[in-house]
From TrEMBL, chain A:
GO biological-process terms attached to the record: tetrahydrofolate metabolic process
Residue ranges of domain FAD dependent oxidoreductase in the record: 33-379
The protein's name: Sarcosine oxidase subunit beta family protein
Alphabetic keyword roster: Cytoplasm, Nucleotide-binding, Oxidoreductase
Pfam families: DAO
InterPro entries: FAD-dep_OxRdtase, FAD/NAD-bd_sf, SoxB
Stretches of the chain forming a coiled coil according to its record: none
Domain of life according to the entry: Bacteria
Originating organism: Sneathiella litorea
One cellular component (GO) term of this entry: cytoplasm
Recorded GO MF terms: nucleotide binding; sarcosine oxidase activity
Location(s), subcellular: Cytoplasm
From TrEMBL, chain B:
GO molecular function: sarcosine oxidase activity
Alphabetical GO biological process terms: tetrahydrofolate metabolic process
Official protein name in the record: Sarcosine oxidase subunit delta
From TrEMBL, chain C:
GO BP annotations listed: tetrahydrofolate metabolic process
Protein name: Sarcosine oxidase subunit alpha family protein
Domain Aminomethyltransferase C-terminal stretches: 894-981
Keywords: Oxidoreductase
Domain SoxA A3: 506-589
Family: Belongs to the GcvT family.
InterPro entries: 2Fe-2S-bd_N, FAD/NAD-bd_sf, GcvT/YgfZ/DmdA, GcvT/YgfZ_C, GcvT_C, GCVT_N, Sarcosine_oxidase_asu, SoxA_A3
Amino acid sequence: MEFSGFRVIKEALTSHKGWKALWRDPAPQPDYDFVIVGGGGHGLATAYNLAKTYQKSRIAVLEKGWLGSGNIGRNTTIIRSNYLLPGNQPFYELSMKLWERQEQDLNFNSMVSQRGIINLFHTDAQRDAYRRRGNAMHLTGAGGTLLNQSDLRKLVPFLNFDNARFPIKGGLLQQRAGTARHDGVAWGYARAADKLGVDIIQNCEVTGFCIKKGKLLGVETTRGYIGAKKVGVSVAGSSSRIMAKAGIRLPIETHVLQAFVSEGLKPTIPNVITFGAGHFYVSQSDKGGLVFGGDIDGYNSYAQRGNLPVVEEVIESGMALMPMIGRAKLLRSWGGQVDMSMDGSPIIDKTHIDGLYFNGGWCYGGFKAVPAAGITFAHLLATDTPHDTAAAYRFDRFNRGALIDENGAGAQPNLH
Amino acid sequence: MIIPHPLLGPRDAQEFTYLGDASLMARPDPYSESAEAEFCNYVYLRDNPAGIHRELWFHEQGDRSWLIITRDTLTHEILGAELVSADKLKAGL
Amino acid sequence: MSRISGGIINRDAPISFSFNGQNYQAFEGDTLASALLANGVQLVGRSFKYHRPRGILSAGSEEPNALVQLGRGARLEPNARATVTELYEGLTANSQNHIGPLKRDLMAINDLFAPFLSAGFYYKTFMWPRAFWEKLYEPAIRRAAGLGRLSFKPDPDQYDKGFLHCDLLVIGGGAAGLAAALTAGRAGAKVILADEDFHFGGRLLSESYTLGDALALEWVETVLAELNSLPNVRLMPRTTIFGVYDHGIFGAVERVGDHLPTPHKGLRQTLWRITSKQSILAAGAVERHIPFANNDRPGVMLAGAMRAYANRWAVTPVQSARDPIAIFTNGDDGHRTALDLLAKGVELLGVIDTRADAPRFGDYEVFASAKVSDSKGRHGLAAIEITHKGQPKWHKVGALGVSGGWNPNVHLSSHHRGRPIWDDDLLAFVPPKDGPKGLIPAGAAAGRGCTGDALSTGMNAAITALGILGLPAHKISLPETLSEAHKQEAFWHVPATAVDKKRQRKRAWVDFQNDVTVKDIALAHQENMRPVEHLKRWTTLGMATDQGKTANITALAVMAELTGKTIPETGTTIFRPPYTGVSLSVLGGGDIGQNFRPKRLTPTHKWACTRGAVFVEAGQWMRAQYFPKPGETHWRQSVDREALAVRAGVGVCDVTTLGKIDLQGKDATEFLNRIYANMMGTLPLGKVRYGIMLREDGALYDDGTCARLGENHYVVTTTTANAGLVYRKMEFAHQCLWPELDVQIISATDAWAQLAIAGPRSRELLARINDGFDISNEAFPFMSCAELTICQGLSARLFRISFSGELAYEIAVPARYGNALIERLIEIGQDLGATPYGTETLGVLRIEKGHAAGNEITGQTSALMLGLGNMVSKKKDSIGAIMSRRGEMATESKRLVGLRPINPNDPVVAGSHLLKLGSVLSLEHDEGWITSACYSPHVGSAIGLGYLDRGDARIAEHIIAANPLEGQNIRLEVVSPHFIDPEGERLRD
């Protein structure tokens, strides 16, 4: 069924009787050509691209809980391609371009909103670093504008310009960046993949891999054994747990990242703003909540909840940046598992086990990567060669010393 | 979180800085034949368990001791805390 | 007016307030909600999506409807719940989320289009044409969405943060909480009793009970008096425990000043972090409603809330006292409201009970096996349709109380992700067994809501907690309670009759604020959005400001009915902090402005102020950036002057912020040899050496100097940014890697004031404060260090090191003498041209000399790139040495170069990328970037440093500095990074 305004009107006039299930709930088949472990944004986008872009069939997505229940189900929804390093920028720019046609590709309104992201700077050195980054963005066609303080005063007059501990000197704007409705992204891919025959199997947890003589044969699940020619693992914070079942240790730690939303408010913040002198970024959802976050708690955790000091730290930063939000109230907070890699950049690669592929290490930035991760991971699964834009995301970069460390923090995940 | 410091009693976790897996104490032998490969594993690979985790915390806003905390990463429950120096003593160093 | 007799209000203390510009009167003890009801105001707001008229639903913090804009000016608070807003003189409130007057909201047109705005409709449309989303659809949606509005002014009030520690935290001060607090208080435990209400007592305040031979309120007052008298008990009314964190830490907000016209001393709220060994969850329960067609009209209220308004606040929710009230219930609880209203002489239509065997407890009409099937009334309830014995019939009423059973407030018990457990007898979820450690549920929160049970479970919970705490526990004598009827049936919503098409079009609300109806749930089911999280996200159920407190369980039940599963099979949502909305101000400390981070001041700060210095933030430090002289109107004038003064005469700069680490011990030498990549073990006594530190992954981490002051005594310097981090790494290396080494390490950054004295005449200046130490070039050559005295006996450390490339020293004195020393130096050096200089000039001097700083050492760069690859000693092991030699780290070809514009008037802009002449502006042709740039008065043009592919082999090549971000393209010449004195003669002079 095509979604359209016309269809919405037609259904409204016929008591909505015609709406169909957005996707099936198929029982798992005994075997597939491709099994994607993880029904989050990355897994669903990978399955969709295997079917659509690479014309593959016999594909299943196995999801432990309900589809979209991982980080795609709770995140701060920012999409952007404002990276510095050559290993990253082309990949995220590909993702940005895919976001720009997301709705048309998937026939599902995931509310991609190119409202612009502003990274504020507070010192000359920060300005120079952002200039370097902004120019790197121009080199890949991603665009960007360097704003001075008076530009900012016009655009976001409610910032604390006059009594700030760290004066706001300007910002790097990427106008094409913005937000997307996170659940809508998962559902859009799920519906489109399902339409192409992908079996999305919910409540199906992978409990082990069947590997013989270095070759992967299938996966053990809570719903029985499923044979597979190729298995792609895309499970974010659970990466180490799943890959350990294949005997693989990863350059990844799992940490907790908290995110926050305020009660609904009339339009307040027009774009996405990140603070350069504290850990805080914010946008406003279409429903009216201020969606914001900051740094990870900083310790290994699978508990999916964080602690109070970071809540205070994040909101102190928010108040320092825009004291006019003080009378709004915090509505809800989350703690998600994030797969923090050792250089802050992801891995999309084969493993040493024939037929087992891995996509992970997205830290707290996997959401914006969903479309490009979907295409590049599918490319790797379908062709056994890395996609051009993801060629730097190999396991061996750590041993080769070809790191992609945007923050220059080194092999300490809680600093990325 | 509250860290049960072996000398100072319960202390707020905000006084501490977290480093990571206690395996970071086991720096490989730099003179080994396979030193480079061993260092690559040492620097980059982690068990990252969901459950019991032995990890290093530094009492930066306190007595500046490094502690080994045994903590459950699923529940955050702390099962043990000892000074790195005490651990090293036990190991005969 | 609908005020009736009784109530816990002070009729001698009238209060005037305004709502939507109209002035009203009420009494002390009223909430805004009870005050509005007392004045016959039923319509208080509009719903989120359809802008349907909304009235007060509840009497507590679960309120989804009665949200108002509270206060005015910078104190304007959006989405304030009228039901928990304590009334004060002059309170101003306005309704929100409407265009035009509340009664004639223009946005109510949405309701006419409701069929088009079904659950999830926006995912299916607004996709064409693409550009219209940002330009048209989204702005329209955003304007319509949201609820209240902010003032856009900084919050003017004060907020405190505090820490409390106790043995037992009791959350909720109703029957269970009071019994628990009294039991524990008498046992001598350190107790905190917190309640979100301004009056302790919980539901006891809202019921007409007697406890023993006293009214419930009297028992409450007696207990409170005793608790108040116990020094080990702290009573915290107006305090919400909003979250349970690890290891017995609770987040709490005390509303200290929200009930006052202006907060006392400006203090509005306090954020408490309460650490408690044990805790009792006695947070009570929240009543459910029963969806029926058009159940969302103002005047339809939870029956328990109606009882609370009658008993505690002496009001009924009718506009005229003559309007009868009806009760719709699926259990005995609704009948209690009927009885209490009857006792107050309120006109009662009767009780509509869904049960065939509906009981009757008093002299009122009972419609057994009956349902309310529809309602009428434009801005308030006018009539309900009762379907009784299969026959629908309209009845005029002024208000309807609805009772669908009670949900224990299990929220806090599942903050650690334990799943609440379904109880088939209670028809509700009760706290999980694996809740937060030490948290014991009691009373209605544990599903034990009858007063007798609440008292005894509260007491027993305290006894259990005392046992764990190792304190002697004794039962207290609890008042006698009457047995309470509490039977109910599982009746979740009134379905539309299958045959009647007209009826099928009518909507029954589940979530009032977000306008989620039974039909929306059915549509979610039809579209396979059946897992409870999909249901929630597809329909927005439970995502409003009340987080579905009155809606979620009912919705689960409706979904369970559709899927044929049980409610627990259908699922439950996770509760997450905060329990109710917490102001961002209290979490963030208010408008903290300059106090966001501490300011670290250098020892010479005071003096620099008197010299009119302009300061700049360097991390937490405030450093003098430059010292403008009268007549200098642009910073460049000051900086050029300062830089030239150093190169020509002598300048003085405070460099205290650089990290200083003091190392002593017989293995200090060996330790430093392992920390620094270059050889430190051979450093002679009285000498300084430049050193680089790597991270274990091989990247360049920090640079600085290492001075050997004694056989086993070193002082090393780090960059300002890494002062703490290098110290931490050293402690790690010592404690965790090499504990066998005998070395002690302390950070001495703040202990010593350190001044750079730089320039050809620096020795002359130094001589004037020197007590007689031989500082001649022969006795104290470049890279020497010594301890000496200056200014007739002041201990000091002297280092002959140079960041500027000139003859230079750094002198350290105890921090308290720093201010006096710089004052003295500038004063006695007047004839030598002694000039204070700041960080800006420091930067110019070091760029001219080609010294690296933070812009070059980014954590992404290596010793090799700086041209210092040879410094990584192969003769010994050090941190990072092995990894620095691997793979692409070893073949990295970027090198630090100097850059100069071909046209001397052109700028050099840091952050520009470097490309070959004539190459296309693209990533493939990117050959490096400019790290630092400045105007060099010495060179007479702008200059820069940068990393360039094979840079060391490209001296004299012309390249392009591309800055497309700002539309610049500038030709540069690649030169040596040493713009002055490349042979290093000056600093050895």
